[in-house]
Every structure is written in structure tokens, then in C-alpha cells.
Amino acid sequence: AVAALVNHDSSSSVEIKPLQPPKARPHGCEECGKTFLMKHHLSTHMRGHTGERPHICPECGKTFALKHCLSTHLLLHSSERPYKCLECNKSFTLKHHLVSHERVHTRDRPFECPECRRRFPQKRHLTTHIKFHSGERPYSCSVCGETFSREEHLVMHSRFHGGTQPFVCPDCGAAFLRKFELVNHERQHGRIPESCPACGKEFLQRRTLLVHVRNCGLNSSTPVHRSPYTATASKACRYIY
């Protein structure tokens, strides 16, 4: 029912509607009991239990449970870097990368290890560090049982069991486990990759090369050249990229 409050100082009255009961959340997760208003929200949530990651980056093969996470990740392969540090003018693709970088100047290290009191500027660094204390290797291969401390290591390992081949030739559709295999294959179609002048690593797409060149400590205006050699990279460069 609707209650009416009469203002005796005027001829007007104000109607106050009762609070609506919360909407039912009929879709429940059988694993953890969490409930959802819409069925597709439950389907997305279930990927956290099943480990399903259907959205694959065409550049590096990294997989994601949510499409918007892939969209954000793809910005890392773009040459656009709109967020600039006011201290050193270094620019970044994502805003939170700029926020993390600014801690280099402020020396802010807000994340502390409860075991050894070592502090870190980023939470993910602390999370990785803690695993060295616990010996935790939570990511397990469903085929051979080998365990890993980091999820990306498991993703790369899983490809060797004949699973995902994310690097696909746009000319003939041939698929490859690793990107350098695709680079070598593309030469059969007359595609000659451009190489990084610092380490020799090769790229089929120039925009990806320009991003990599900055990671090697060079300016994006540094001239690059086409290389006739097999795609190789120095150990230091592999860690950077």
C-alpha cells in the first residue's frame, strides 16, 4: 500500500512508496553457492571454477575468461601510449601502468610480505614472492600433473600436449604453437619480417615491433630493417618482452 503524508502548511501531499523487495537471484552456483540475477552471469562466474578461458589473444596466445579482459590486454600490443609520466615523460598504454610506474619516483612500496617484511610496489610482485616462502605451485597440468607457480607458465606448457595452436597464418590457415614458427612459415608466402635493431627479434607487424623497440630501451624513431635471418632474440630481450 502507498502511505500518504499530508503537509498541514500547504494543500499538497507527498506520497511515499514502500521499498521494493530485492529481486530474486534464481541462478545459483553449485560450487560456492553464489547466486546471480541472470543466467549468463552465472555462466561467466563458472569459468572461475572450471578454468575455462575461451578468449585468445591473436598476438601472443594469452587466454582470458572474459572478453573485456582480452580487449584491455590487446591495448598492450598497440603503439598508442596516451598516459604520460610528468616526472620522466615515459608513456603507457594503460592508466594503472602509469600509476604503478609513478611509485618509482615516489619510492612508495605499499605491499609488505608478512614473512620477511620485504615490501613491493605492486601487489602481483608480492603475490609471486609469497609463493617462494610457501612453495606453492597452484597451477597444475591436467595431462601430466606438472605444477607451476604462475598461470602463464602453465598456459605455455599446456600447448606442448597438442592443444591450442594460437598463431595462425592469414594466408593459408596453418596454425603454430609458437610465434617464431609462424614468422618462419610466413617467409614461404613472401612475407619478410622486420627485426629489432637491438636484439634481432623479428615481427610481422610493424606496430608490434615499435612497441618492442621501446621495451629494448630504444626510441621508437630508431630505424628498423628487414632481416633475412631466423627469428631469434637475446636472453635479456626475452625477459623484457
From TrEMBL:
Presence of keyword DNA-binding: yes
Subcellular location: Nucleus
Entry keyword Ubl conjugation: yes
Gene Ontology terms, MF aspect: DNA-binding transcription factor activity, RNA polymerase II-specific; RNA polymerase II cis-regulatory region sequence-specific DNA binding; zinc ion binding
Annotated stretches, region: Disordered: 6-26
Primary location group: nucleus
Keyword line: DNA-binding, Isopeptide bond, Metal-binding, Nucleus, Repeat, Transcription, Transcription regulation, Ubl conjugation, Zinc, Zinc-finger
Domain C2H2-type: 27-54, 55-82, 83-110, 111-138, 139-166, 167-189, 194-223
GO cellular component: nucleus
Family: Belongs to the krueppel C2H2-type zinc-finger protein family.
Function: May be involved in transcriptional regulation.
Protein known as: Zinc finger protein
Originating species: Schizaphis graminum
